[in-house]
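Thread: quick sanity check before group meeting

JM: Hey all, I'm pulling together slides for Thursday and realized we never actually wrote out the predicted structure for the chain we discussed last week. Dropping the sequence here so it's in one place. If anyone has concerns about the input, flag it before I start.
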Amino acid sequence: MTATTEYPRLTGTYELDPAHTRLGFVARHAMITKVRGAFNEFTGTARIDGDHPEQSGATVTIKATSIDTRNADRDAHLRSNDFLKMDEYPEITFRSTKIEQTGDDTFDVTGELTIRGVTRPVTVPLTYEGSAQDPFGNTRIGFEGSATINRKDFGITWNAALETGGVLVGDKVVLEFEISAIKQA
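JM (edit): ok, ran it. Output follows.
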């Protein structure tokens, strides 16, 4: 069975499974390395129309305070007014506005990403990784993908100059998505 012939049976509403989903990011640090992180608290719903994927939709809400780069000092700085300004903007949201099937198992999901109260369009190319019945009788689907944004487009402009030239934090941030969602009854 190909992915395309499998889609009609996947029609339904799905909830993200936070225990098996990673919403991550990668940013340049000091011009020489990358820092990886993720958000640990989020909710999300996808409405899948297997016969007409373009009529599908998704929403995700992320708790900004749940940012985790495995360094408490850095995480505190990222939560501050220099970056996420989480006291004023406790959530990061994404709401799809268009879904386009681009191949047998690939989709471009375009939507409105809101960070720090600034909303910008973002397209995330996703690959359908398949579906499975888990040991508890749940139907699960998986998607993976990534998209690059410029943090300055969302008002995140803090930086520090380096003595050797360049800056401490790169402008481009790669958003990474490893999605596992469970079909709702």
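AS: nice. The chain has one domain: 3-183. Helices lie at 3-6, 72-79.
JM: adding both to the slides.
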